[in-house]
Amino acid sequence: MRINRAFGGVIIGALLLLALTCRAAFLDGTRSKVKVVPDKMTTDRGEKEYTDTLSFSKGKFSSKTFLARGFKPADYRGESEENEAEFEVEQTSDTNGVVNWQGEIRAKNVVGRLTWKKKDGTSLSYNFDGPKK
Questions:
Q1: Domain count, the chain
Q2: Nearest one of 91, 78, 84, 89 to 110, comparing CA atoms
Q3: What is the CATH number of the domain that holds 11?
Q4: 132 neighbors 109 (Cβ within 8 angstroms)
């Protein structure tokens, strides 16, 4: 009887781990070319609008622009429903600070906001949007 209970616990634990792993990668394969627009305060600091490519793969999120600035792909988290998903990501760089992404994917559109806190304490905010590929 003890062996059956232990085996049952192992099976339940494995199924839970599998469910969490699948859930963590719910946006894998999603890509989007987005327009990133600074808010007024960030524009006043000299920042400009730019285009970026966002990718979700193997449970990780990456931004082409921030990858070039030393921000490695980071785990993403969130939830999804039919035709809608929300995600959050925190990317860090040893030399360039922390970038926080919060976004939504609705049907074929990606929208959201990113905040970049640089190592020197400067905080920059942007909105982004574009089509989901």
A1: 1
A2: 84
A3: 2.40.128
A4: yes
Expressed as residue numbers, the domain containing 47 is 2-131
CB 94 within 8 A of CB 118: no
Distance CA 15, CA 6 (A): 14
Q: Please report which helix (H) or strand (E) contains residue 98, including its range.
A: strand 97-106
Three-class HEC string of 28-68? CCCEEEEEEEECHHHHHCCCCCEEEEEEEECCEEEEHHHHC
Residue 10 has pLDDT above 90, yes or no: no
pLDDT digits (tens, 9 = 90+) for 22-40: 445 789 989 999 999 999 9
pLDDT over 60 at 9, yes or no: no
Q: What is the pTM of this model?
A: 0.79
Distances (CA, A) of 4 to 1, 16, 84, 89: 5, 18, 41, 40
pLDDT score recorded for residue 22 = 42
Record the tokens describing residue 64, joined without a space.
């082409």
- Span 43-63, average pLDDT: 97
